[in-house]
Amino acid sequence: MTSNYIGRFAPSPTGPLHMGSMVTAVASFLDARNNGGNWLLRIEDLDPPRESKSAPATIIEQLIAHDLRWDGDILYQSSRNDAYAGALNKLLSLDLTYPCDCARKKTPAVYQGTCRNKSADEIQSPHAFRLRLDTPEVSLVDGILGPQLWKIGSEVGDFIIKRKDGLFAYQLAVVVDDAFQHVTHIVRGADLLDSTPRQVCLMERLHLSVPHYMHLPVVLGVSGDKLSKQTNAAPVSNQDAAGNLKQALTILGQSVPKARDTITLLEEAAANWDPNRIPKKHTVSLP
């Protein structure tokens, strides 16, 4: 039992929860409860052009309907710009970030450091900020997928932490907020696995503790595509909360309680939670 365990569920409010995001919510909730820990809710409303104004309220309603009750207050990233600016200023003071005016469409997937050594007078506005990356490799042991190694220097290069449009990048915001909320365990989809080395680099430069990671298989629909708003994934219905929870448990390889009410179902599922039974793969199809 890990009494200092702090987990979180951090959806982006681009639309209602579908079965893919419900699997992440259930897994992160059960892992926290099985370890006697807290489960926090963070709404990552950092990118207004991609978001739905009604989504935060809908997501909250869906979680409540499924008795996935969080601890403490909800944290909204839209209220955290001052904290992100403080982190950026710290990195600037340490010469660990620099402005970049490269056009995104003309920038190769692995950034070649075009603006790395330019003077401030040579940079045009608007401009982004990139992390000065001097770490060739990042490694960690994922709780599901096992040992991971990323050659981040040659595969990614200096990456953006504040965008040209003035919005803070996901990579910086999530690191700052996980530290602020004292998150110790992160359970999320394997589609975010490649974000992990970027976040670990930022944590190290900001002298923050690196949490324990578990990356779940991404749920694919009948078409073979990831369930998402872009693929018109159906929202989970609040009218069949128990059925949705049981389907999520099946996808996660867990034993499925016979209970019909959500509270008892979740209590039994938490008691029997076994991460070792989660499929050790990057994707899994709907049953």
Contiguous low-pLDDT stretches (5 residues minimum) are: none
Distance between the termini: 32 Å
**SS strand fraction:** 15-25%
Shape: elongated
- For the biggest β-sheet, the strand order reads 1-2-3
CATH class of the largest domain: Alpha Beta
Mean pLDDT: 94
CATH topology of the largest domain: Rossmann fold
CATH superfamily of the largest domain: HUPs
The percent range for helix content is 25-40%
Radius of gyration over C-alpha positions, nearest whole angstrom: 20 Å
Biggest pleated sheet:
3 strands, parallel
What is the H/E order?
EHEHEHEEEEHEHEHEEHHE
Structural class per helix/strand content? alpha/beta
The tally of helices reads: 8
Number of domains: 2
Q: Per CATH, which architecture of the largest domain? A: 3-Layer(aba) Sandwich
Task: Spell out the key features of this protein.
single chain, 287 residues, alpha/beta, Rossmann fold, Glutamyl-tRNA Synthetase, domain 3, 2 domains, 3-stranded parallel β-sheet, 3-stranded antiparallel β-sheet, 8 helices, 30% helix
Textual characterization of the structure:
The protein has 287 residues and is an alpha/beta fold. The chain has 2 domains: 6-80 and 172-285, HUPs (Rossmann fold, 3-Layer(aba) Sandwich); 88-162, Alpha-Beta Complex (Glutamyl-tRNA Synthetase, domain 3), CATH 3.90.800. Helices cover 30% and strands 17% of the residues. The protein contains 8 helices and 12 strands. It has helices at 19-34, 55-65, 81-93, 152-155, 170-180, 196-205, 241-251, 262-271; strands at residues 6-9, 38-43, 75-76, 97-100, 128-131, 138-142, 146-150, 160-162, 185-189, 212-216, 218-220, 283-285. Strands 1-2-3 form a 3-stranded parallel beta sheet. Helix 3 (81-93) crosses helix 5, helix 5 packs across helix 6 (196-205) and helix 7 (241-251) runs parallel beside helix 8. The longest helix is centred in the N-terminal third of the chain and has 16 residues, at 19-34. The two termini are 32 Å apart. The mean pLDDT is 94.
